[in-house]
From TrEMBL:
InterPro entries: Kinase-like_dom_sf, Prot_kinase_dom, RTK, Ser-Thr/Tyr_kinase_cat_dom, Tyr_kinase_AS. It is a single-pass type I membrane protein. PROSITE patterns: PROTEIN_KINASE_DOM (PS50011), PROTEIN_KINASE_TYR (PS00109). This is Protein kinase domain-containing protein. GO terms for molecular function: ATP binding; transmembrane receptor protein tyrosine kinase activity.
């Protein structure tokens, strides 16, 4: 995909309007994510700054282009359960390390929620209700439905490519909240960084995964794995299994992801 500055013009701001903090939130396929701020273009901008999750690419041309492509994809989406892109640094098209700012969700990721719940288990951990898990999955499902019904500028179908608890962000540290799908920056050519345990058989079994096109059907498979993550309160799918072992699991009735004893049959 060839991008020009015009395609993101409505989101471009000078570097001075995006501020990074020392708080690193994580890292993905194309760059690091920091807690930061975005300042509106007004005289009182320092009083009106808003929290943001600021992603900066790794210092490599391929990663820089990957981040700009992620920004372009996000700029075309508008849904209550998809993280919004709010600003792109003007220097992104000149510097070696582009920087984008996304809306801040204070609850962190669903994966982080599960880790914290397990850490507190037996002490102060609140109960996790099936109805809350189902509601989170419903919200992600609505985001995917919108995404899969959308088309890019060339009329091609759109998919996410990394549906997992780590990419479901929450507006609150309580599970009864709004969930949003984030991180649109994982193309299939990132080799060993691919989330193999979440990927469908047609991609995992391919000898050259860089030539496989991720389609909406692949997202649906990954959504099923996300459901298993939720049912197990954050367990890692296919934990410590090799790629060959995962491929063998695909021939089993439950695809190697057993139903937890505490999970209701209807779920």
């Amino acid at each position: 995909m060839k991008l020009s500055i015009i395609e993101l013009a409505h989101l471009l701001v000078d570097d001075m309007f995006i501020e990074l903090t020392d708080s690193k939130l994580g890292q993905g396929a194309v760059g690091f994510v920091f807690k930061g701020y975005v300042f509106p273009r007004t005289q009182t901008r320092f009083k009106q700054k808003v929290f943001a999750a600021v992603k900066m690419s790794y210092p490599m041309p391929q990663k820089s282009m990957g981040l700009l492509e992620e920004a372009y994809r996000m700029s075309k989406l508008n849904h209550p359960h998809i993280v919004k892109l709010i600003a792109v640094s003007k220097l992104s098209f000149q510097a070696f390390r582009p920087m984008i700012a996304m809306e801040w969700l204070p609850g962190g990721s669903l994966a982080e929620y599960f880790r914290e719940h397990i850490r507190k288990r037996g002490n102060d951990a609140p109960p996790v209700y099936v109805r809350d898990i189902v509601d989170i999955l419903r919200q992600v499902g609505e985001a995917l439905k919108y995404l899969h019904e959308s088309r890019d500028a060339a009329g091609n179908e759109i998919s996410h490519g990394d549906i997992a608890a780590r990419n479901v962000l929450l507006t609150s540290t309580k599970l009864q909240c709004k969930a949003k799908l984030g991180d649109f920056g994982l193309p299939l050519d990132f080799g060993p960084r691919l989330p193999i345990p979440w990927l469908p058989p047609e991609i995992v079994s391919c000898l050259d995964r860089t030539r496989i096109q991720h389609r909406p059907e692949s997202d649906v498979w990954m959504f099923g794995v996300l459901g298993w993550e939720c049912a197990t309160l954050g367990a890692e799918p296919h934990y410590q299994r090799t790629v060959d072992e995962i491929q063998q699991c695909f021939t089993w009735p439950d695809r190697g992801l057993h139903r937890p004893p505490s999970c209701p049959l209807d779920l």
